[in-house]
Amino acid sequence: MEFSQYPVNSLLYITNRPELVFTEGDGMWLTDHKGKRYLDYLQGWAVNCLGHSPLCIQDALSTQAKKLINPSPAFYNEPSIALAALLTANSCFDRVFFANSGAEANESAVKLARKWGKLNKNAAGENRYEIITFDHSFHGRTLATMSASGKAGWDTIYAPQVPGFFKATLNDIDSVKQLITDKTIAVMLEPVQGEGGVIPATREFMQALRALTKERGVLLIVDEVQTGMGRTGELFGYQLSGVTPDIMTLGKGIGGGVPLAAMLCREEVACFEPGDQGGTYNGNPLMTAVGNAVAQALLAPGFLQSVKDKGAYLSAALLKLTEKHGLAGERGDGLLRALKLGSDIGPQIVEKARDLEPVGLLLNSPRPDLLRFMPALNVTYEELDQMIEMLSGVLSELKR
């Protein structure tokens, strides 16, 4: 079937898409409508943590769909209970609220923090509702999460913004101190800023931030929509720094490709009352059954260590590529990494890599001067080598 035969104009135009339609996926590979294969280093923007269509997700969907899909969140269901127990057993949190997207999970975190701020007022008896976030951060596309984000230009698209969010500078503890007022209720950050260019919060900054928030009676929220579920080599990114946050959000990898997210909190801040939060599809057994399958795969002996090992391998390979082509270096944690290009050639690389023949390469350039790599966590060393070789060829071609 030719691309022109697809009624693509029935879709609302929200982004520029190349003229190809993906029809199949397997592991690190996608196949388009013409049968061309692509080595995929986007994986749905870090969503497919086990690659495209892994057997464990196929089995979970098939088995659960035959039993129960959605009894309503007004009732308990077995898969959601099991997944909540698995998440709390392997984190510092006590309670879980399931949602459908990372933005929705982050909205839940904001709501919970502000509810806690109503119950724990300041010395003047006023509600605390202000939340400090960071420049270049990304927390979602709802009005509140766009307001929380530090993405350039987002303060005007749907103005006026939701009030109460103030932007500090990542890895600068003094910039946070200067923003704390008697109305501050939380500080919210990504352990690694993904959309901002794969910028890790340093271990020292995370520890200083936890000490500061405890000292000032302020909640610490970690947005682990991109860094959670094994992406950094630990199950959760906050574990890299040895800190204990109050609230955490998950998305992307927790569902391995299906719409699933979560907001976790410690018992002392679990202050929602009936009616405060909900959602028609939240915690449905079909999606949480998949979440269980994904979590069990990540927690299998040796899996997270393999992510660390492959992250180190990819880092070393990117540094060699840097030396070979005169680039600016690399950064990241685990299998969330960036190649710093030193010039604004990212979009050109993305296009040329995709159009390679007979096999294409799918890359992401969140900023024009870098590439971001988000492979499946079970990517093979051969697939890492193949990507580096293909990318090196593209870089050589651009020099001509």
TrEMBL record:
Q: Which prosthetic group or cofactor does it need?
A: pyridoxal 5'-phosphate
Matching CDD domains:
OAT_like
Pfam families given for it? Aminotran_3
Which sites bind N(2)-acetyl-L-ornithine?
Answer: R141
Q: Which residues carry this modification: N6-(pyridoxal phosphate)lysine?
A: K252
Residue positions binding pyridoxal 5'-phosphate: G102, A103, F138, D223, E224, V225, Q226, T280
* Major location (coarse): cytoplasm
Give any GO molecular function from the UniProt entry.
N2-acetyl-L-ornithine:2-oxoglutarate 5-aminotransferase activity
Pathway it acts in? Amino-acid biosynthesis; L-arginine biosynthesis; N(2)-acetyl-L-ornithine from L-glutamate: step 4/4
Which subcellular locations apply to this protein? Cytoplasm
Its UniProt entry gives the catalysed reaction(s) as:
N(2)-acetyl-L-ornithine + 2-oxoglutarate = N-acetyl-L-glutamate 5-semialdehyde + L-glutamate
Instruction: Give the EC number(s) under which this enzyme is classified.
Output: 2.6.1.11
UniProt remark on cofactor binding: Binds 1 pyridoxal phosphate per subunit.
Q: Known InterPro entries for this protein?
A: AcOrn/SuccOrn_fam, Aminotrans_3, Aminotrans_3_PPA_site, Class-III_PLP-dep_AT, PyrdxlP-dep_Trfase, PyrdxlP-dep_Trfase_major, PyrdxlP-dep_Trfase_small
Swiss-Prot/TrEMBL keywords: Amino-acid biosynthesis, Aminotransferase, Arginine biosynthesis, Cytoplasm, Pyridoxal phosphate, Transferase
Q: Give the multimer and partner information.
A: Homodimer.
PANTHER family xrefs: ACETYLORNITHINE AMINOTRANSFERASE, MITOCHONDRIAL, AMINOTRANSFERASE CLASS III
Anything else of interest in the record? Answer: May also have succinyldiaminopimelate aminotransferase activity, thus carrying out the corresponding step in lysine biosynthesis.
Family membership, please give it. Answer: Belongs to the class-III pyridoxal-phosphate-dependent aminotransferase family. ArgD subfamily.
UniProt protein name: Acetylornithine aminotransferase
